[in-house]
Amino acid sequence: MKDNKKIKRILIKISESEKNEIKSKSDKLDMNVSSYVRHAALNKRIIIKTDKEMIRQVRYIGNNINQIAHQLNVNSDDLLIEEAYIQLKEYKQMLQSILDNIKRIDC
């Protein structure tokens, strides 16, 4: 049976700025420092807790893309296709902006 009790300590020396950076990153991820360092050191996947506004935006974009796809399946008007293409480009830019914000957390 694997022992998951966390009773061992590792002493490391870091600079004040490194300590502040680690603390800042762990705060951004809503993790305690110990858990953050353990995940980072063991190359474990760190799951970012997203905010409600970001989730709302992604849902909004998904709903609009579904509506565009539905309209394109019902109508094959060239003007409608051009409008849909423009909207899809805008949604792609919005999604890229969301991804850029996530990447800024800089794990």
Order of helical and strand elements: HHHH
Structural class: mainly alpha
Number of helices: 4
Task: Tell me the total number of β-strands.
Answer: 0
Major sheet, described briefly? Answer: none
How would you describe the shape?
elongated
The amount of beta strand, in percent, is under 5%
Average pLDDT, all residues = 80
Helix content: 55-70%
Please mark out the parts with pLDDT under 50 across 5 or more consecutive residues, or reply none.
Answer: none
Any overview of this molecule?
This protein has 107 residues and is an all-alpha fold. It has two domains: 14-49, no CATH class; 52-103. Helices cover 66% and strands 0% of the residues. It contains four helices and no strands. The protein has helices at residues 16-28, 33-41, 52-74, 78-103. Helix 1 (16-28) crosses helix 2. The longest helix has 26 residues, at 78-103.
Question: How would you summarize what this structure contains?
Answer:
The protein is an all-alpha fold and 107 residues long. Helices cover 66% and strands 0% of the residues.
List keywords for this structure.
elongated, mainly alpha, 66% helix, 107 residues, 2 domains
Protein topology:
Elements: H1 16-28, H2 33-41, H3 52-74, H4 78-103
